[in-house]
Every structure is written in structure tokens, then in C-alpha cells.
Amino acid sequence: MQRPLVTMVGVEDEEKISLICCQCAEQIFDFIRTEEVCEAVATMIESAVTDGFDSKSISLRRAMVAVIDNHGLVSAKKWLRNEIVKLIYSRRTLQTIDEIINYFLSNLLSRKIGPLNSLIPTGVQDGISVKLQEMTSNMLAAEVPGLVQSLNIKHIVVEKLNSLDILRLEGLLLSIMEEQFKYINLFGALLGFLLGCLNLLFFYSG
Q1: Helices 35-55 and 60-67 sit at what angle, rounded to 10 degrees?
Q2: Are 6 and 17 within 8 A, CB to CB?
Q3: Which of 49, 57, 98, 171 is the most exposed place for a label (fewest CB within 10 A)?
């Protein structure tokens, strides 16, 4: 019993070392699988859980630590995290999520929303109207001068007038002058009537 193992088994004999390790592992597992050991482990777990339920203050973490040590709890957390990550990044999960998103989007896009004023509050509508007016005014103030300059309206009007027939242009001018002269004649008649009335008034008053 006091003799060192290295003197019994040569370190260089890897095959014999592997055989001894396998035999030890088998013996340990056979020992663990025995009914007495299983009953002892079950009794230990039952005792820990029962004590926790009786005290009404033990947490799940303390119960797990009572069954497995902290190192086992850390390993379990790491294993659970890795399994969840694998499940999330698996092709089947991504495909399922993609199908769910497509289903909800297709239903949402095919649904009639009705008038927007029933969905947007009045205050938001007023804010949108004011913002659109400001954007339109700024755009017109920035773009219209350049647009007018690029169109060269004066040149277009001159070309249009030059392209008109002389007789047609003369008739157009005469019609405009006739319209204006009519108002001038009416104004002159009204002015003459007022002057005549003033003369009669001065005549009878004198």
C-alpha cells in the first residue's frame, strides 16, 4: 500500500496507464450505479429540498447549490447559455422568425387603415400642416427665382408677340383701347354732369 504507483506502472507505458484509467472509471461508475449509492444521493437531495421547503426562505439558487456545488452551477449556466444561443442562431429558428415576420407584415400591409385623420391626433395634424407650409414656402423662395430666370419669361413673351399676325395684334390692341376708352368716356360724362350741377347751384344761389 505504501509502494508508489510509478514503481508498479511505468510512465512510458501509455497503453497500460490508459487501461488502468478505464478500469478505474468503470469501477467508479459501477459503484455509482449501485442501489445503495442511488438511495444515498436521493436521500441527500430530498433532505436538502425538504429543509428548504420547511424553512420557506430558501431560493432556487441555494437549492441548486445544495445539490451541486458552485462550479457545477456555473457550468450549468454556461451550458444553458450556449444552448440558447445555438437555438436562436439555428437555421430553423431564423426561418421560423422570418415566416412570422412575413405573416404579420403581409396582414398589416393588406389591412385598410382608412382616413389618416382618424389615426393622427389633431395636434399632430396641425404640426404636420405647419411644417409642410414652411417646407413649401422655403422651397418656393429658393427655387422660383432660379426657375423664372431659367425660363426667361420676358423672352418668351416677346417671341410670342413677334410671332402674332399684324392684323390680329392690331385688333387686340384696338379692343383693349376701346375697353379703356369706354371707361374714360364714362368718367368724362360723370365729371361733366357734376360740373353742370355745380354751375346750376352757383347760378341759382347767386
Answers
A1: 160
A2: no
A3: 57
